[in-house]
Amino acid sequence: MTIEITKWDAADHLDSDEKVALYLEAAFEDGDPAVIAAAIGDVARARGMAQVAKDAGLSRESLYKALSEAGNPAFATIMKVTKALGFTMTIAAHRS
After folding, report:
1. I need a labelling partner for 9 at 20 to 30 A (CA). Which of 26, 40, 45, 84 fits?
2. What is the pTM of this model?
């Protein structure tokens, strides 16, 4: 018996604005900057990294680097990419 295993990729399942919004909300709720950057990277790959980079005014290479596991994107980069993806970030009071 042979079992074939393929790597699961979130980008393959982010095929609607609703799914993307829920995915990003979960990442932001986690609060880990690496998780947030990775989630934004997944969404950018799902939408087409080259087009997202162009819409954000960044090179594709710099966007891949910024959103990689080793990346540490500047807040300005995150803002540009979320805008290019068609989303805005808002602040809400934390309710304990």
Report:
1. 84
2. 0.86
73: left (phi over 0), alpha (psi -120 to 50) or beta: beta
Interatomic CA distance for residues 5 and 3, integer angstroms: 6
The answer as to whether 53 is a domain residue is yes
Angle between helices 33-47 and 17-30 (to 10 degrees): 170
**Quick one: angle between helices 33-47 and 49-56, nearest 10?**
110
* 40 falls within a domain: yes
Residue-wise pLDDT tens for the chain (96 aa)?
A: 899 998 999 999 999 999 999 999 999 999 899 999 999 999 999 999 999 999 999 999 999 999 988 889 999 999 999 999 999 888 888 777
> What is the residue range of 75's domain?
14-84
